[in-house]
Amino acid sequence: TTTKTTKPGSETAAGGEFWFDKAAADRVCRFFETFLVHIKGPLADTPFVMPAWQRRITRQIFGWKRRDGSRRYRYVYIELPRGNGKSTWAAGIALYMLVADTEPSVEVYGAATDDRTATIVFDVAAEMAAKSPTLRDEVTPEKRYLRSDNGYYRVLTSKAATKHGLSPTCIIFDELHAQANRALFDVLKTAMGKRAQPLMIMITTAGDDQESICWQQHDYARKILDGVLVDDAFLPVIFAADPKDDWTQPETWRTANPNYGISVQQSFLEDECKQALAQPSYQNTFLQLYLNIWTQQAERWMPMAEWNACGTREIPDLTGRVCYGGMDLSSTTDL
Prior knowledge:
The protein is of the alpha/beta class. The protein has eleven helices and eleven strands. The protein is 35% helix and 14% strand. α1 (22-35) crosses α2, α3 (86-99) packs across α4 (115-131) and α9 packs antiparallel against α10.
């Protein structure tokens, strides 16, 4: 398969260093189904029964434990195409960490490249809490805050300099690919050391900047999935089409989108694909957002196959002629 994702683990791992707590995994799934409802689309106001792929990831995050009983995973990197319900799922995780986590005085934070993006997951969580008869009494909404008896869920601004001194139990980092630099990421990551079992969940689509903090996390996740690196605290989950596959075929779309046929409809992708075929500048958008393929630029002026067919590899004889050299010194953006 061209989809990269984690594999379900056995009851023990790493020579007994980690063990699977089935009761803890069941508990978080039961929380979703009992206290949360969908708030958008055809499933609106129905119990939040996670699809199999979300359920598998959730059980891995909360089921795997260390010898001392704390959670194994500190970092979760989830990369998948747009429309697969990652924001709704992340909102449920944030609420679970707010009202059901075992650590006292919880601090749950929502972060992103800007305030508007950071509030996407938060707004979903606030509406979920408001629609739940139980959570409505447990969670008090305030501006950019959700409060419980055990702590709060707060939306952060994008200014890293103001985040020193935080003590996060959970960080929901949304759309990491849009992060301009790693300043905010590093501040929040290092603040997690004050907690016994902190959790950072990075959710994103693929990007086009292969110098970014998101690409670094993507590359790290790939190396773990491929067995090049071992990091027992990092859970990598990547759903993507293989760049070698035909991006115009429904089978490729199905491979990349775990919610294909649920929240991602074939008819919609068919229309988007027609636009991408007619407008080369839209092709990279289609590849990046709907197939989760990393590109080297945001827009494509000419299909690369046509570009590669141009010109020649032969170098003419320039002996005795005046020659000029050009150097591109742009660090991130080519004019």
